[in-house]
Amino acid sequence: MSFRTIEWRDDKVIMIDQTRLPSEEVYNEYTDFQGVAEAIRGMIIRGAPAIGVAAAMGVALGARGIIADTHESFFKQLDNVCDVLARTRPTAVNLFWAIQRMRRVAEANRDKDLHSIRAILKAEAISIEEEDLRICKTLGANGAALIKDGATILTHCNAGGLATAGYGTALGVIRAARDAGKKIRVFADETRPWLQGARLTSWELMKDGIPVTLISDNMAGFFMKKGEIDCVVVGADRIAANGDTANKIGTYSVAVLAKENRIPFYVAAPISTLDLTLKSGDEIPIEERTASEVTHIQGVSLAPEGVTVRNPAFDVTPARYVTAIITEKGVVRGDFEAGLKALVGQ
């Protein structure tokens, strides 16, 4: 990878500003958890695994900034840091997974002095970033086995290095297939309203030298029917126990089109994206964002002033449209409920 999505450097969190891609490659520095929270909320960093890493680093920054004489005061303030970060975005379960992991580590070391607890939280956040990179590479290798040589792959939104600590989930599968010597091509849906496919996925793949063709969201069915798409690979923000999958808005439409055209539809996501406490996708909270994201692009109005707008950021693809779920621990097909439980040892 020729860029870093997020890293801890000199007690600062450094992250690439994804709102300014592809025209500018700018890296922002954050020295407090409030800044990290705003970066998550404002889409400067996005993608479920990357949000999890950012949240963990935000907790570590918050712990470093706490002024406290007692453990009771420290942990009370740490709870506030975690609560602020948890309120940034509701759908990506990796956010809550990372925050809970940081809480558990802090509690497990409550008997230590505060300086040591801060250092342990910093080390844990860095460990989460490093683990994510290893996980994505393993996941990618597992998924690459499903990709045929010469395949053209459709992807939606951005589930690449920018959505993770590096390498990617859906794009990790694509990168691993390329690295295995397979000649592949990618069709990238533009992904309205934030245009992550147009701005981010196309940018990543071009930097990696992987052939990519950009299409608007409503062109996917056209190319499927013409036989120009061999499979679909997408990421996920939360996967329920039955395999229902929340991903960027528009994913459900792509899945239905894939089923109609008998094209495999693969979901690539780490185990941390599973939420087996939810029986189905009906229980997944769906974030609704501001109307201006739909009515404007880069500050330019596209719609009449005052028009009513709905802007759900995600939709849920029912498990019946999913051919397989690809994780770092293996690939699950068919009975997702049993298969996912087996992966996590339940």
Task: Please provide a brief summary of the model.
The protein has 346 residues and is of the alpha/beta class. Helices cover 41% and strands 17% of the residues. It has 2 domains: 131 residues, Four Helix Bundle (Hemerythrin (Met), subunit A) (Up-down Bundle), CATH 1.20.120; 206 residues, Rossmann fold (3-Layer(aba) Sandwich), CATH 3.40.50.10470.
Gap from first CA to last CA: 35 Å
Across the major sheet, the strand order is 6-5-4-7-10-15-16
The domain tally reads 2
Q: What is the count of β-strands?
A: 16
Number of helices: 11
What is the level-2 CATH architecture name of the largest domain?
A: 3-Layer(aba) Sandwich
- CATH homologous superfamily placement of the largest domain: Translation initiation factor eif-2b, domain 2
Biggest sheet details: 7 strands, mixed
Q: Using the alpha-carbon principal axes, give the shape.
A: globular
CATH class of the largest domain: Alpha Beta
Poorly predicted spans: none
Radius of gyration: 20 Å
Structural class by SSE content: alpha/beta
Average pLDDT rating: 97
Q: Could you name the CATH topology of the largest domain?
A: Rossmann fold
Helix residue percentage: 40-55%
- Classify the beta-strand content into a percent band: 15-25%
Order of helices and strands: EEEHHHHHEHEHEHEEEHEEHEEEEEH
